Structure formats: structure tokens, C-alpha cells
Amino acid sequence: MAQSFQNVQELIQDSFVPMVAVLCSEEAERVTNKNNLNFAELLRPFCRLTSEGHIRDPNNQLHIVKNLRICVNNVMTSSSAPSATLSQAQCRVLHDVVSSCQPHEGAVSNVVTAGDYDLSVTGKNSTTPWFESYRENFLKSMPASDHEFLNHYLACLLVVSSTEAVPLEQFLKLSQEQHRIQHSGEYTNPKWFIPNTLKYYVLLHDMSEGNEERANLSYEDMKQRYGPQGCALLKMNTRSISADNGEQIPDPWCQYLHANYLSNQCGLVTGNTAVVSPLLSLPFIYLRILGSLHSVSTATDGMNDAKGLETRVGGPRSHGVCLTLNDHEHIRQFIQEFTFRGLLPHIEKNIRQLNDQLISRKGLSRSLFTATKKWFGGSKAPEKSISEPKSTCGLLYPPEAPELQIRKMADLCFLVQHYELAYSCYHTAKKDFLSDQAMLYAAGALEMAAVAAFLQAGAARPYPTHYMDTAIQTYRDTCKNMVLAERCALLSAEILKSQGKYSDTATLLIKMTSEDSDLRSALLLEQAAHCFIHMRNPMVRKFAFHMILAGHRYSKAGQRRHALRCYCQAMQVYKERDWSLAEDHINFTIGRQSFTLGQPENALLAFRQILTNESRQTATQQAAFLREYLYVSKSLLETNDVCCPQLPLPCISSAATRVYFGHQRCQAEGEKQAATHVSLDQEYDADSAAIWHRLEEQLVAAANRGVIPVNFQPTQYCLNSQTQNLRQPLAVMEEPIIVEVTFRNPLKVSLALSNLSLLWSFSQDDAPKPEEPPITNEEELAPGVGHQHVEVTVVRGKQDLRIQGPRLNQTKEDKMMVRRGLDQRLSPIITPPMPLMEVFFLKFPTALLCGEIRKAYVEFYNVSGVALCGLRVVSTHPDFFTFGSQSTCRSPLSPTSENSSAYKTLTRAEASQTSVPADHFSQPSTVVEIPIEGSTLGPGESTQLPFWLRGPDQEGVHEIHFLFYYQNLDQVSKRSSHRVLRHTVFICTSRSLSVRASACVSNVPQQQLVEDGSTGGMLIFVDVENLNVVSQPCTVRQAAERLPAAYVIEDNKQLILEGQLHVALQTIGKEATSLKIFFPFVLQEAQEMQLLKFKSELSPPVVPSTELSQLVKISLHHPETYTHHFVQNSLCVVPVTLTLSNCAMAKMDVMVDLQHKPTSPESPDAPSSFTWVGQSQYRLHLQPEEVVCLTLRACFLQPGVYNLNTPRVFARPTEQAAMCENNQQMATPALIIINKA
């Protein structure tokens, strides 16, 4: 905001000062040119009076004039008519003034606090020096107009050198020249205040070459002819040009001459006509230089003096080289003498004359001075232009019109700071102009009346804001004169700001914006924005909005630096406030402006913000943003030596980064199945992690005699945001570290990424020189050169992985502040080589019957170069497995081996069985030491052991975990002494046999027991029942007392099913069963089995109304396992047979629905991600006891264990058509195992 070091009163006084013209002889110009100055330029630094002046008003009251400044200009004539707009040259000067004044780099910004915003506003004390310079130059470059006299010349200095042959003759010639310019009518400029212009005669004496005595004689002649009050002798050039005594003489002309150089550019034109812009005949342009000055190019290459003007603004001490400090004082005294002895008395005299003329004609008409029209102009109406009606601004008064005499008197009073009398005259003239509908004159009177009212010291009259508003509206709308409207608005804005009326000021400035001048609109919008944050209740968002508007107009005006500054200040308000579209616009503009101004780093930062924020832009706009960023990045890489810049895209979800420590698992060959262990494909599960942690504790305790070491940390192969990452993980030499990074594209356009590499650095703890830099691969992987193909820009860069730890929430300070813990997942410690073991399983089943015993094989393979020992295993189901002897192990890979399968087809004579005692599956400890030969496994060695498995007693899908433990034979690492290997299997168990047993006291006589050799009198009754509803009807042939095996006969062949069922008899006379399920469930299932097993022996049942859900029996027939090559064909289709049996003696209407996919209550763990393909519904009519088979097809997308029992079957008796179809009860889960080939 423009808060000038001047107050408003000083600003207005310096904007309206008495004008003095200068006419010099050629010899006088030669004398002053020794100092690289003309006479007007010589006087300018000394034109402010240091002492007070005095005049007497028409009432003979003494009036003090303080701090008066006069303006001295050379007379430059022009015949051009005054314009209502600024010329191109004037606009170019104002443009250069604003452009040359920029904020200092590194300057301390002023912080404005508004609510929760702390805005950093450019400029010291919230000033905008570029606006101050523009305002001062604009006010002082106002063209002279016929409706006011403030810019008209009051006096003329006639300057002649003392070296002239006859100085008085030269004075006469200059006087006649001035008279001709003023009264001949040839020139429209310059304009003169009154016909009798004050002529002040100056004799210029050059002390270095002239005769001082002759000069004094000529001065005496001048005093006799012109009077002592009308002439002066000015001695100068005391110092010789060649003299250089080291005296430091100040140069007060530099800043004025720069502004003078700018103003003279307006007068440099090409062609034969020597038309001079009206700017040169007006008050001198002052420029306060607060920033660094930029060179200004000449307007025309064809003018001879353009280079001379530029030279005169040259280096230090190029002006006043012949002047001493005494000469400076002589010039200052000359200005004071001229003002006090000539100018002020002349003004006082004219005020009295005008006042006397007007007072003598008072009282004849509507106001104090209106009647003077009859004496000065008679009854004739004011003249007007032919093309303009009376009610427009084109109305013109003759010079002798009484209204203009009142305005002259008002302007004279205003120039000598007699504001009270000036206001009275302006107010009177305003009424007369309005009555004549002379709107241009009326607007001028209103404007100056308001200013005079404000400047009255101690006046009770308030500032008439409505005067200014009316004047601005008249200038702009009626007179179409934006220059005068802008001057009026600038003055009114400063007055309103001085009174704290920032809201009114902002409204006024915004109204003055238009399309005819982008520079003016930009400056006013910026000032309006500053007004919004200086209100009592700051309006921050309005500040930002108008700063953006100002930046846009600055950009249109070619002021890119100011445009960039405005957008940057507005960004403080919109940043991180969920105004994404506004942020994108501002950042995009900042990026373009910065790049144009040669600031590619700032441009890149702005474009980065657009791409990283959540954008709501369209895909087309986002693509444009991306192209801009890539172009700037490429340009920056080509010009700067940047190794590998930071890229904003794609976004990295650092918290989702996962780190895997370990080598790639070996692929199983043939029928081998590798241990599942840990992979990046597995999702983290906290419950499973706790299970593995507990199992590893058991292994470590067993290896350390039941004691867990204090420094024990559970092994973590895969680290993520949910794991414990406080300690640095351990990585083994020569083993890979896999980092999974999650990329996210926030844009709606595709991003093509190529040649991705992981950058790393390695620091050695025990390095001999700690100051050595860490080893890194960044220089090898990042050449840092962007290259462009056909319409495709490729930029190579990097992105840093910065992972924040979890937020702490333990103490009060943690809850009050945002504190985060450590996350060391990307800072591993490299340990010496460790053994690495692979485990393979052969003939490992995926389905078992309850209690079934199956023989498999397990192979241990040391794939590392380090020997291992201490091989142990622990499982969540210790009763599920046991190891056989290594000496009796025979490879199951041969198809002729008798151990190749647990199912054997034999003749009855060869029927035999393999018994596995129950205590083999009852481990004394949950940790099992694996019996390998020598208890060690050397590098590259492998061993194979039998692996006996027993089906769990409860049906369903069982998840079983194995954790293998092994140690390094040579303890070389203190941090890591063991390694573990995980394996998880899913076993699907089905019901087999149910054994019910009871014991009672025998009634056999004791003698018979002795004869039979028996020792007890106990009878045991055993009932064995087949509960497997999936298998075909079978008969139990034999059951031993310990139930080691059962023989099943089918098709004259024996299937030997090895297994163990345990029945614990606790009480005599009470029946016990081996089926560990609820009794009601057993009864229900037994009834179902009865239907399948003995259906041919049953009489035709009558369908009861209470069992409508058992009208039709359902069963599914399918392979137990199915292997498919999913890589070649992603769809696996398996044929399934659905068997429907009508259990009633009545006809049934049956509907089969394959679209339903419920989760089976018996097997909640079985996946259901498959679908039925083909016909989705079937409608059938079943005859009594009819069995129908439907061929279905199930489609699978991935390997797994699936429950196929999802079809819904509805049935009703055909004769009861009004009855609703009833959902038939489903059978037990039909599980199928899909394997990957």
C-alpha cells in the first residue's frame, strides 16, 4: 500500500506548484553546458524554499507560505491540441517509471496479521514505491488545460550571459520572443496564467572566463532599467574543469536528470515536423529512486540529441563539475530572491486585482461573483464549440469571462496555500459552471474545492467526498477524460486513506479500472487490495482476489515482475485452504512468469505444486500443466548442472512402502512343493504375526535351554507400516533386499515411466576413516540429461522415500503436538553370511479323512555356502505330524515304490496294514528336533525324511503353521544367530468312521475266565459307523481293539484306509464316541446317512408337512483335486455332476438356481470366488424315487480350496400347485482343491 514518507498535505502541495518558464540566450546555454546541464536543470535541485514566505490577502491579512516549491522548465512550444488521453510517449514514460522501481532482493517484508493469516507484504512499512513513483510522475505530467490554470506559467526567467556584447539587447530580444509565444496565437503550448506575465531578468556570469567588473556594471544598468526587484546577477563556474583538488562535491542533479531524460523521450519524434509533446511544457517529472534503476531505451534512433541525453545521465560527478559548494549556495539564494522579491509579490498583486474587479461588480445577480459576467462579457452567452451541445463538456468560455476570472483567483490562492479563500472561490465558480452546464469546468471546480476544503488547517468543514465523486463521474462519463478522472481519484484516495476510510478508498479505486489502460488498472487494483487488509476487520480473501486481478493486468501491461509479485502475495491466502482450482491457476501463472523472467527454479517449484496437489482440473488442462513442467525441467537440465532433480510425479505413498529381506524362493520341480515362507504377495495380518512370534519364542527357548535371551527380537522378513520398525532390520550379505514402492498418479492423464532404479547409499561402521562419504549408486544411474523425441519430452529425475514413523500418543506433550517415532525399515544393518535353507514337501496331501494317517516326505536343502545346525520345527498343530527314521526313508519319486501312496489295492490274501502308534503323534514338547544325520547340513547338501501326517478329528478346512529353525554352525555375528523358515498348509478333512464304545462288567464265571486265560471281567462293546456321505456304500470288514486300521471292500477289491480313532472310556456303562461334535448334529447327519445307505430297504415314506425341506436329496460329484495351467489359460472350468433324488412317493416339481453364492456355515474358511457357467436355472419334474443327474460347469480364476455346495434347490409336490416351493436342505460342504500347474 502506498504510504509515502510525505503526508497527504505535502503530496498535494508538491503536485500543484507555481510554474516558471525559462528563455536563455545561446551564450548563456554555453555557460551552463559546462556542467552538462541547461539552466532549468541547474536550478531544479534548489527549487524548494528553506524559509517561509509571506503574502497579504485581499483583506490585508498576512498569510504565511511554508515549504513552497516552484517548478522551472525550458519553454518548448507546440501547436498540438490538448488530448483527453495520454500520448504513447507519456504512457511509455509511466511504464518505464513503474518497471524501473522494483523491491530490493532480500528486503525485509512487512508481516500483516489478519485473523489466522500472517501475510508477508512486499515493501518497507507496507509501501509500494512503484505506485508512489507512478502517482508523482502522473500528477506532475498533467497536460495544461483551458478549464484550469494550475499548470499555466506565472513567470518567465530571461537569462543572458555577461559575456554578451550588449546584454540589454539580448534581454530585449528574449522579452519579445516570450511576448510573441504568448500572444501571437501560433502555439497552443505553453499556456500562460495571465496576460501580463512576470518577466525576471537574470545575468549569468561565468567566474572562470568572464570579467566580473563588467558583469557588475551590466547588472547596475539592469537594476536601473528593470528595477532591483525584477533582475538578478548569478555568478557560477568558480571551479575550473581541469582543477581536481580531491574535494568531494555532491551531485544533487542525478535523480532529477534521470526523470528529465525519461520525460524528454516523449518529445523525440521522427520526421520533418518538430512537434513537442505537451508533457515538456509542464511541471518537471520527479522520480524517487528506491530500487535499482534500469536503463531506458531511447524512443527514436534518428534524433541527434538522444545519445547526448543518455550521456548526461551518465556516471557519477558528470554534472556540476565547475560548481563549488559556494556556487550551490548562490543558486539557492537566487531562487529565494526570485520567489520573495518577484514571484510572490506578483501573485499577491494579481489576487488583489482579480478580487477588486469581482467585488466591484458584486450583487447584481445570483451569487457573489456571477454578476461580473455583465461587466466582463456583457449579456452574451459563453462561446461553445460548433460540434458540441451546450450541456456537454465542449462548452468554452472566452478568456475574459468572469467565471474564468474567479477560477484564476482560486488557483492563485491555492498555489500560495491560501486554502480558505481558494475554497470560497472554487465553491462560487462551481455554482456558475453548473448553471451554465459547463460540466468540464464544473468538475474541475468541484475537484479543487474538495481538495482545498481538506487542506484548510483546523477547519470545521468536513471533507466533501461527494464533490470528488461527482467530479470523477463527470470527468469519466460526461467528459470522457480519463486522465482528469484518474488525477481526481488518486487525490481522493490519498485523502480517504489519511482518514482511515479504507473501504471507501477500495471502492473508488476499483471503479477507476477500465480496459483502456492495463497499467493504471493494475496499480489501482493493487492499492485496493492493500486497503482491504488495512481495514479494522481485514478482508483477506478480497485482498487476495484483487491481487490476482492486479497481477493479471500487470501481465497484460508487460510488467511481468510486478505480476509475479502480486500472484505470489495472493498465493499466501489460497495456499492449503482447499481452493485447488485457484491454487492451480496461481501456480501456473507464477510458473510461466518466473520462467519468462529467467527464474526456472521458481517456475519448476510452482509447476510442481500443480502436479502434486489433488487437482480438480480436466484431463486436457492437466496435460497442459504436465507439458509445461516437462518443458521447464528440460530447459533447466540443459542450462544447469543438475545431477538428478526431484520429480513431483508419480506420487509415492511412503507409508505403504514394504521392504522384503531374503532371496527369491526356489521353484519346486516335479511333485515337490516348496515351503510357502514369506513373500510380498502375502498381506500382513496382525493375528498371524502374533502366532509366528509365539512359535519363534518357543524355538528360541528350546535352543537356549528354556530361556529366551534378553536381546531377542522376532524375525521380520517383510516390513510395512504395521510392523515394529523401531530397530534397524538385519540383512545378510549377498542376499537381495526388495523394496516395494506404491506409486499413485493423481492426474487424469497417463504417465509413462521407464528405467526405474533404486538409489542407495552404504556406510561402513568400522571404516578406518569416518569422514569418508558413503558409497552410493546415484552418480552411475542418474546422468541428469533430459532428451526429447517426437512430441515426447523425457525427463530423468528422482524421488526421495521419506517414511514417517507412527504418531506418538503416550505423554501429554505427544497428544498436544505432532510427534512421530522412528521407522527404520529403510535403514538395514548388513550382517556376515548366514546359512539359508529351503524345505520341500513330497506327496503332501491337501485332503484327509478324520483320523487318517498319510505318509509324505520332507526334504531339507542348504542353498547357501555356510553350514547349518540345530534344525528344529514347531507347529500350531503338534499332533498333526511326526518324523520317520532317516535310515528307513526311501524316495517316493519312483512309481513302483510301495510307499508311493497310502492307498493300496490288494487281494484279500495280501491284505496287510501299517500301524502307527498314537503316541508317535503325541509330542512330549511342541518343539521337535529334526533327526538329520550328524545334526548338521553342509553347504549345498540336502536330506530327506519321512513325514507322517494324521488327519484332525474335526472335519473342515484347517490352517496349519510350521516354523523351521536352524542356526549358523560358526557363530560369527553377534546380531543374528539363527534363521527361521515359515510354511503354512490348508488341510481339508472329511468325516470317516464314528466309533462308539461302552464297557460293562462281565457275567462270565471267574472259573471260565481263568480257564480262558483272561485277567479281567470287563466287556467292551464297539460300534463302527461310516459317516462319509460322499463315498460310495461300503462295508467295514475289520476293526482291531486299538483301531489301528480299517478295511473297506468295494468291487471285490480292498481299499486299505490307514488311520487311528481314539475312544476314551471314562465310566463303566456309559457310552463314549470318537466323534468330537455336538450330539444333535450327529443325529441329524445320521438320519441323512440312513437315506443314502439303506434307501433300497425302506418303505415308501409319506411326505410329512413338517419335513418339506427334505423332499429332494442333493449330492455333488466332482474330482477331489484339479490341476490347471493358469498362465496359459486364466479360466479353469471343471465339470461337476449334481444328483437329485426324489425321496418321496409323489411327483415333484424341482427348480435348481445356480446364481446364489452363500457362505457355507460348515466351512466358513472355504473361498467362494468361483462362478457357474452355462445355464443358470433348471426346472425338472421328478417321478417318485427318481434320480436325475445334471452336468454343471464351475469356473475358477485362481488356485485354492472351494466349496461347490452353492446351488439352491426348490421343490414342491406336483399335485399341490398352490404350495410355495420349499428350499431343500443342502448336504455337507463339497470341497474341491484347484492346483496351479
From TrEMBL:
Domain TPPC8 first Ig-like as annotated: residue spans: 681-782, 791-849
All residue ranges annotated as the TPPC8 third Ig-like domain in the record: 984-1033
Domain annotation TPPC8 C-terminal Ig-like: ranges: 1111-1212
Sequence ranges assigned to domain TPPC8 second Ig-like in this UniProt record: 850-981
Listed GO CC annotations: TRAPPIII protein complex
Pfam families, per database record: Ig_TPPC8_1st, Ig_TPPC8_2nd, Ig_TPPC8_3rd, Ig_TPPC8_C, TRAPPC-Trs85
Name the record gives this protein: Trafficking protein particle complex subunit 8
Organism field: Takifugu rubripes
